[in-house]
Amino acid sequence: MSLSARDFDRTEIIRLILQSLESLDLKESFNTLTRESNVDLEIEEIRSLKSAIINGQWNLSIQLLEQLNLDDNNLKSSMELIYVQQYKELLSSGNDQKAIQVLRNYLTPLLHDQNDKIKQLSCLLMSPFLIDNLKQSRSIVLKDLENFIQSDLLLPNNRLFTLLNQSIQYQSDNFFYVSNTNEVSLLNDLKNDSLSFPNYNNSLIKAHKDEIWHCSFTKDETYFATASKDKSIIIWSIDYTNNSIKKIKHLKDFDQDVSVIKFSNDQSTFIIAIENVLIFYETVNYTVKFKSDDQHDETISNLLFTFDDSILYSTALDQKLLEWDLNGNLLYKWDQLPIRITDSLLTPNNKSIILIGPDGPQPTLSPDGTLSYTEEMRRLMIYDLTTRDCIWFANRNEE
Questions:
Q1: What Gene3D superfamilies is this protein classified in (predicted)?
Q2: What is the C-alpha to C-alpha distance for residues 178 and 171, in angstroms, rounded to an integer?
């Protein structure tokens, strides 16, 4: 279905353009469009709320929130964000006494049915806590508020650029011969040209001493990494101009074989799976950010990032699917799924996950030492990532 300009809401279009002009610091154009269209980017209460949060005026922020006529749940969640930020800033400045008052008088009543959150916040009192960049920290609060304030009041940050990125991603996902999103232009539709796609071996590289079990590229495709049975990983850089590949880092002597490696979409982090353990690395300096304990009981089969890197999914043969953030915090554990997961894939919209593998019980060990599965045990399953319910499955008679 093709939509014309008349099919879109005029006010929404103008607000998107106004926000983009503001982001590009085109003040005169912003003022001219506001005056000519008689459309404001935001109402006065939202402008005041943003200013109050950026300036750390917490009481005023709460008062302004209460004027927005949010439903009870969204108001409660929004107030929680602000009180938590106030609490953390007081701890960071060394004002523990006032921080305790905020925790006791505001957060505890607000979160009376969420004891785990209260405990986590209380634990911050026991160790030094520092916010390095107040402005950035408060900006994150503003962004998080977008989840609880309707978009006709608070337009999500950089909304037009988000839509443009989605457009580029859509073109890339729906054309077979695009190897790099930099090839996509906003000015023209992408053309499906098979001649632009390489169909011959470009390079042959040798560095590992045993089988290579996994390969992963960065999103911009300028780097890739290989994981091997030789208990090592190698990071490579790609020079497309000179048609060359260079080894830039060799991490080796791990305790066991490296089965999976994956870069985050923002390329700040890469994660490796060594049997049932995850190790999170800083991409810049290759230092270890986090090493998981034995949350998985058997071999990890795959690692998957959401578009925004908010969740890393790890799947394994132990019938578990775990959700992590980029800092190694375990967000959620799917226990006792019905299959031993040998492979997994996120759908393009990141709303579902596809799991493949044999049924849950351990395979039997044949006299010759090989693992034996019955034919009816192999399954393909699709789970909704919001409800975590199985929405489709199929039995497979073959591997």
A1: YVTN repeat-like/Quinoprotein amine dehydrogenase
A2: 9
Q: Is 291 helix (H, G, I), strand (E, B) or coil?
A: strand
Q: Which residue type occupies 61?
A: S
**DSSP letter string, 100-112:** HHHIIIIIHHHTT
Q: How far apart are the C-alpha atoms of 183 and 9, rounded to whole Å? A: 31
**What percent of the chain stands above pLDDT 70?**
91
CA distances from 107 to 61, 78, 118, 144 (A): 15, 12, 8, 17
CB 287 within 8 A of CB 265: no
Cα distance between residue 11 and residue 228, in whole Å: 55
CA angle 243–270–158, rounded 5-degree value:
90
Determine the 3-state secondary structure of 303 from DSSP.
strand
Distances (CA, A) of 212 to 206, 231, 248, 275: 10, 10, 17, 15
- The CATH 2.130.10.10 domain(s) of the chain lie at 200-396
pTM of the model: 0.53
Residue 12's alpha-carbon distances to 132, 153, 238, in angstroms, are 36, 11, 42
CATH number for the domain formed by residue range(s) 200-396: 2.130.10.10
Tokens 């609880």 -> residue: 148
The predicted-structure confidence for 77-118, as pLDDT tens digits, reads as follows 999 999 999 999 999 998 999 999 999 999 999 988 888 888
Q: 124: Cβ–Cβ under 8 A, 6 or more apart, which residues?
A: 87, 88, 91
Kindly state the tokens that stand for 182: 């930099």
CA dist 53 and 79 (Å) reads 12
Give 47-88 pLDDT, tens digit per residue.
999 999 999 999 999 999 999 999 999 999 999 999 999 999
